[in-house]
Every structure is written in structure tokens, then in C-alpha cells.
Amino acid sequence: MHPSLLLLSLLLLLPLSAASPPPFQHYPLPAARRSARPLQTQIEVTRPLPFDALTPACTLPLFNHTFAHTSDLPPSAANYSAPLNCTWSNAVLHFSGAANGTQIDRIAAVWLAGAELLRTSTPVSTNDGVSWSFTKDVTRFSALLRRSNLSLSVMLENTVDEFYTGAFDVNITFLFYNIKNSPIHNRRSLNSSPRKIIKRSRRQSIAINASLELDQIPADLIIPVSAAGDEGYWFKIQTGNDAVYQGIQIPNNTYRAVIEVFVSAHGDDEFWYTNPPDFYIESNGLNITRGHGVYREVLVTLDDNVVGSVLPFPVIYTGGINPLFWDPIVAIGAFNLPSYEIELTPFLGILLDDKKHYFGFGVADAISFWLVDANLHLWLDDGPVKVQAGPIKYKNPNNCVERESSFAQLNGKFETEGERETEFSGWVYSSAGNLTTRVVTKLEFDNEISYKSNGTIVKVEHEVTVKKQIAITLPSSDTVASFSVESKYPLELKTTSVAGSGPDNYLVSTELEVSYEEEKKIDHFESEFKNKQECSGWMFVHGEDVLSGAGATSQTYTVQDSHGCYTRKVSADEGAIVSDTENFLCAAGVVSGSPA
């Protein structure tokens, strides 16, 4: 959450009646509760990286800074240079942090030469302090990580005053691994589809990249699509009419292009998927600013034409909905917010003209505020052939959004459905020959909010489905590479509020289910991933003070892919882990990364 426009509440969906309390901030719980159990490190449940068991070829401690009162200050920076005398194939960013006092969650990001490597948020901290650490595979940024004399910038806008006393100590270290000739590399070679296709003629043998995953074959050049950097390299979007642009001329030997978008919601739009329509707020005379309905779509434009869009996953920061849910297990994506990839290769016929073109962003129906930037990943042909490209088909109809509502005073139901289906294809002639890239994407949005019992019972059902297909073919129609993925983001949230005996006293109970599900097919190999959290808890509050409360979270994380199988089940209650099991074995009859 951004400190200047923070709308932090221990429970998101407080009753909307005129007598209900306003959203409130997170203050420390009674010391007796905190001292009942030893302080634990906050964790985001993820799968261990495949090379965690290996010894790094080299380690580069780079950044160490204390973010005290940094509001309105530019990012902190350090000089980055690639490690000398180190042979590596994969890179990992290790992020660790600690706070020494009371503090709310803050948004943060790490950029290298203006390109975003990581979007993250901090945990809520009490007087006892808090600590956390995590890693992210940053191999896709190898083109930058192999360079020297670059600026590594870290933005963490924090406020320290009489209420928020905590400063954040942040450390960043890069770990470099050489997995060639390791068991990991050998297993990947056996379980994965070929990563390269060879085009042969009488005089030459030229290898071209066939893998469509950024982490397998990183780009040759990365160009940031970002702001100036004085207030962070992200663009700030405050309304649905805002549009931000950056002009970029790409090299004329580019044969593939992908834009990777980073986005996070804050302020009045932090919980956009719960926002009531404006007419409901106005009709009931409610004094709240989080409105404008639930539909948000991040639009990516090229010269003012939409070339892709994102329906973002609802990342919940550690102060959101009920902070006791996220101690010590944080919400999905809270430490490592997802980025979103859009294939732009079909548009190289526009981009390869030795001219500057304008990449832009907007957020449909947004209210304040969203932080957006992107990285342009480019693959370059160093062969003797002049790269040429042209369009075949551009189909991008306007999104279709339907809304239905029925309400009487504070009780009612609001349904929103949205859909966008696009198809882009184009040819690229390079040293690899004449290849056609076809991209088909379908986005589906479904949301229902209901208010009962004079607005004291609120239920939200939200789901996004993203279906994407990419195919690269030869003039003979033979397929060089194919990629398909279907992702789902379901969320169910129910909050019940009961007024207490005294003024400004409320008992609020909340139930939450949220998950990230993905099925992926790369050529003939399939993978499955599901990450689900179930939470329940209550709070008794007085004004902006928490008098008592409880929260419990259980999480199941399962994945099956070319690296094998992994399952972890973990539960927390009253701020402590009560069970934690993990399994690296595949179920009977399941072969990881097996052909479809």
C-alpha cells in the first residue's frame, strides 16, 4: 500500500451503513498475545528453485539499506557489475528484510538500469519487529545481469512518525549458478521438448530459439518501458482516462518481441474486485471513496492501438482483509507479485522501420491508483540475413462488459461479466527462415457482490480465466514451437459485522478462499500448478484499535512439470505454524513433464 494514499483496514469489507465504522489502520495487538509465542519469520509458500541444492558459482552481495522516513524521496541505488571470472547460466535474486518497530505494509520494487526485476510488498510489523526473506529466479534478465556499471534501484516509500515507528532494513544478493552438466540440466534435457530448431542449407547451419519461455532462453536485449525514476520507475495511473507512453526504437534485427508487464493496485483501488458501483454509493449517501465497480483491465498499447491486456491476479498485501490471516504465512504473490507476458512478435512488421514507436498503458475504469511499468524482451538475429516482417491478421475487438444490478437501500446484488478475445499473426523472415507467429488470447471476467442484513453481510465471488495460445509455423505449416496456457484466479470472500455494546465497537468475522491455478502445454509436454489459501478469522475493534481477534490460514501448493512434482501443505493459527509437510514425489501413475 502506498503510504500517502493508504486505505489500510484490518478487514476490508466493513458494513456500509451510515452507523458503521470507517476503514481503519492496523495498530499493534496486545503485547500479551504477541509474547505468547516466539516471533517467526514471515513466509510466502513457493516451490524451492530447482538449483537451490547446488553451490552457487559466485555470490554478489550488492544492496544494504535502511528505509526509514523515505516518503517523497527517490529510490535508493547501488552500482551493479557482473561478477568477474564466473561462468553461470542461471541467476537468482535473494531479498531479505527486517523491521524494528510498528509498521504497515509497503509496496517496493527493484530495477536494474530501469528494468523491473521484482515487485514486492513488506509484511506488517509490530513493536516486536518482523523479518522475512525469499528468492526469485531472474535468469530471464541475463542480458542485463551480464553487463557492468548499471544502476540497481530500490523503491520502498516508508513513513516513520509517532504511530509508525518501524524502519525496514533491506538486503539484496545475487546468486549465480552454472547448471550445465548438472543433474538438473540433464533431467531437463530428458523431460523437456527440444529448445532449439536447426535450419540447414548447403552452406550454413543456423540454430534458432524454439522455446517460448523467457526463463529457458532469455532475450538478447531488454529495454525498460518505465518512468523517469525520481519517484520510482513505475508509472502512476489515477483514473481510467489516464494514459502513459514511452517512445522506443527497437533494433532492426529483432526477430522476436515480448513485453512483460508489472502492475499493482493501491489506494481506493487496492481491493478493486470488491468495489460497489458509484450509483449504489450515491443512492445510499455513503461516505466512501472506493467505488466505480469491479471491472479493471490493464491495457497495453502500441501507437495508441491495443495490442494486449491483463486482468490482474488479486494480490492481497499483509494488511489487507484481515492481517491476522497473513501472520506468518503471507498471501499468494505478496512477496513476489506476478508479472504478465504479452507476445508482440506479430507486430514486428510495424516496429522494424527504424522509427520510434510509442508503448503505452492504461487501466480501464480505474480510480486512484495503479503502478504500472514493463520490460521489452527482444531476441536479435546476428546472421547475414536482413530481418523483415509483416502482418497477417490483427483481430482485436473491444472488450464486452455486461453489468446487472438489483438493490433496495443497502441490500442488493451486483453482477459483472467481461470478455475479450484477440487474434494476432505476423511473419518474420530472418536467418531462421520465414516463420509465422500466431497468438490467440481469451480473457474472461466474472464477479458478483451481494449485500444482506442492511449491508452488514457482504459476499464477493470473483473469478478470472485467461486462455492463451502461441504457435510458430513454417511456410509448410509445420509447427516449430507451440505454447498454450489456461490460468484461473478464483476468489470468494464473506464478511459479517455486528455492532458492539459501546460506541464504535464492532465484531467482524471473515472467511476467504483464493487460489491461482494454471495448466500449461509446451509443445507436447504438460504441466499443472495450483496454489490455494483458505482463511477464517474475527476481529473485535474499537474505532481504529484492535482489542482482540484471531486468524487461521491453510495453504496447499502443488505443481507437476519437467522438474518433477512438488506438494506443500501448511497451516497457521494465532500467528504460528501448526503443521507443515512437503513432498517431492509424484502420485502413482503420474510422470512429471510427460507428453500429452
Automatic annotation (TrEMBL):
UniProt keyword Signal present: yes
Domain Peptide N-acetyl-beta-D-glucosaminyl asparaginase amidase A N-terminal: 56-394
Annotated Pfam families: PNGaseA (PF12222)
Key word Metal-binding present: no
Keywords assigned by UniProt, alphabetized: Signal
Signal peptide (UniProt feature, chain positions): 1-19
Protein name listed in UniProt: Peptide N-acetyl-beta-D-glucosaminyl asparaginase amidase A N-terminal domain-containing protein
Organism for this UniProt entry: Salvia divinorum
Taxonomy of the source species: Eukaryota, Viridiplantae, Streptophyta, Embryophyta, Tracheophyta
